[in-house]
């Protein structure tokens, strides 16, 4: 049976059969203890064995990491848990070699990253990926409960949403023999799609087409960016949720973001109490309180200009001077989130530093864009109301140098039953950092892809 069901429903005196792995094995002369886990819950179970077992001597030498099948009776325990298993029979399926890297001691996160294919067996990563699972399900639950359609936007695309210089190129060309045209330029007409293609950096444009058909939609899938950023919050492959809502303006989208985040965090608090306690003790002190506070709080909202005002007044020496009309540096985001000590919406951004598809405000200087900043993970969500004025949109496409041909269909959406609409992109991995307290994005992704790293 699964350990999770055992802890839920089994009583002292029950006989059970379990399959799983040894986290630790300590033997004394006449008896021994195995710290046993099977991955179905964070808790492990203590197995107690004694020299009445035929194979007592061998059991004493089972190594950490070995897989076993065990039969026994649940008895009262004086240890950390109220029950333990008195072993009646234990069978070794595979003894882990002595050089098994995960030993019962504290390993550094850097070391564990170097053995990503095994680190998911440690308590820390069991907790991380269990929360990742619950968060993903809760996101679907939130949108499904609120009449959103889940849409699978393409991963291979010729459309330029967040900038084609940010996208990985897709080709079937033989790299040693790339066809060129008469000017010596790569001849993409000879490639599989007859044009240049990329792996997507965002499903938003296709999401907008579906929002014009289904009113409320969301995507949830992997996203790829080529940025060569060696930071704690950037990965080249990450998961993004991109809702798009017709008949919704920038204020509406802020409300949805706040409502959704509170729902997801509440689900984590309800479904992962052991994991949150674990992170609270070993990763981020005060995590539970932070999450409980988030659910009850009202998120702060400030304009980009107000954010700069606040930074200019700060009695902190910043490396980068905060300026109106300019982007916020990491240190600025950090100051603002710590100042409010809660998630903060920053809206109405200078138009030149934000994407081409964002709605221009009547001041002629800003766009109706909104980022949600949180302590630790920084920018958790980026969103905006979309530009629906055909003339303005065409001008922006030109100004930003976007390949118009590849998105003529997107522009047409503004001609066939156009309506005001908004959407956002939530970085799942950054959300995981926020709810677990884990400081590096590499440690919330099962097999992270970052510059210089495509191991496993
Ligand atoms: O701000 P971004 O680039 O926005 C978009 O892609 C829009 N098309 C979203 C939309 O309006 N539909 O990315 C959205 C979010 C960021 O706020 C961040 O959480 C995450 O995606 N993100 C990354 N996460 C990890 N590694 C990276 N390199 C990321 N780039 C963005
Ligand atoms: Mg952004």
Give the helix/strand layout.
Layout (H helix, E strand, L loop, with lengths): L2 H7 L5 E13 L3 E7 L7 E6 L5 H5 L6 E10 L6 E12 L14 H5 L2 H4 L3 H23 L3 E2 L5 E2 L11 E2 L26 E3 L4 H11 L1 E9 L12 E10 L3 H22 L1 H10 L4 H10 L3 E4 H10 L16 H11 L3 E7 L15 E9 L3 E8 L4 H10 L8 H5 L8 E7 H9 L20
Parallel strand pairs: 3-5, 6-10, 12-13
Antiparallel strand pairs: 1-2, 1-4, 2-3, 4-5, 7-9, 8-9, 10-11, 11-16, 13-14, 14-15, 15-16
Helix pairs in contact: 5-7, 5-8, 5-14, 7-9
The protein binds 4-amino-1,4-dioxobutan-2-aminium adenosine-5'-monophosphate (4AD) and magnesium ion.
The site of magnesium ion (MG) has 2 residues, from strand 15.
What features would you describe in this structure?
The protein contains 14 helices and 16 strands. By secondary structure, the chain is α+β, with helices and mostly antiparallel strands. The strands form three sheets. It has an eight-stranded mixed sheet with strand order 6-10-11-16-15-14-13-12. It has a five-stranded mixed beta barrel with strand order 1-2-3-5-4. The two termini are 31 Å apart. The structure holds 4-amino-1,4-dioxobutan-2-aminium adenosine-5'-monophosphate and magnesium ion. Magnesium ion is lined by residues 379, 382.
């Amino acid at each position: 049976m699964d350990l999770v069901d055992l802890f839920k429903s089994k009583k002292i005196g029950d006989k059970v059969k379990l399959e799983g792995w040894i986290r630790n094995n300590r033997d004394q002369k006449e008896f021994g203890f195995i710290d046993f886990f099977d991955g179905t819950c964070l808790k492990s179970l203590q197995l107690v064995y004694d020299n009445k077992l035929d194979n007592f001597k061998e059991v004493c030498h089972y190594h950490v990491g070995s897989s076993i099948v065990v039969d026994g009776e649940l008895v009262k325990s004086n240890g950390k848990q109220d029950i333990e298993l008195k072993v009646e029979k234990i069978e070794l399926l595979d003894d882990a070699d002595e050089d098994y890297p995960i030993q019962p001691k504290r390993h550094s996160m850097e070391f564990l990253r170097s053995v990503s294919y095994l680190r998911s067996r440690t308590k820390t990563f069991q907790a991380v990926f269990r929360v990742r699972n619950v968060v993903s399900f809760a996101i679907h639950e939130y949108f499904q409960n609120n009449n959103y359609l889940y849409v699978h936007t393409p991963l291979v695309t010729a459309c330029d949403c967040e900038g084609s210089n940010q996208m990985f190129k897709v080709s079937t060309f033989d790299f040693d023999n790339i066809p060129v045209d008469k000017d010596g330029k790569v001849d993409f007409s000879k490639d599989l799609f007859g044009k240049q293609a990329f792996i997507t950096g965002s499903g938003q444009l296709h999401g907008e087409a579906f929002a014009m058909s289904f009113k409320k939609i969301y995507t949830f899938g992997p996203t790829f960016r080529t940025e060569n950023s060696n930071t704690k919050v950037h990965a080249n492959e990450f998961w993004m949720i991109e809702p798009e809502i017709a008949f919704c303006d920038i204020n509406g989208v802020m409300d949805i973001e706040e409502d959704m985040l509170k729902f997801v965090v509440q689900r984590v608090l309800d479904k992962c109490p052991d994991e949150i306690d674990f992170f609270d003790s070993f990763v981020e002190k005060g995590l539970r309180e932070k999450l409980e506070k988030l659910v009850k709080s009202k998120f702060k909202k400030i304009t980009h200009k107000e954010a700069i005002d606040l930074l200019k007044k700060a009695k902190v020496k910043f490396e980068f001077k905060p300026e109106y009309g300019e982007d916020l540096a990491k240190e600025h985001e950090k100051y603002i989130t710590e100042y409010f000590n809660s998630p903060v919406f920053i809206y109405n951004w200078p138009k030149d530093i934000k994407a081409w598809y964002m709605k221009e405000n009547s001041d002629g200087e800003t766009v109706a864009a909104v980022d949600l900043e949180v302590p630790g993970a920084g920018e958790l969500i980026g969103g905006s109301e979309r530009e629906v004025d055909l003339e303005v949109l065409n001008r922006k496409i030109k100004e930003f140098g976007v390949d118009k041909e590849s998105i003529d269909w997107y522009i047409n959406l503004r001609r066939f039953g156009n309506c005001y609409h908004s959407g956002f992109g939530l970085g799942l991995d950054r959300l995981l950092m926020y709810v677990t307290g884990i400081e590096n994005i590499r440690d919330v992704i099962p097999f992270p892809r970052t510059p210089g790293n495509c191991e496993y």
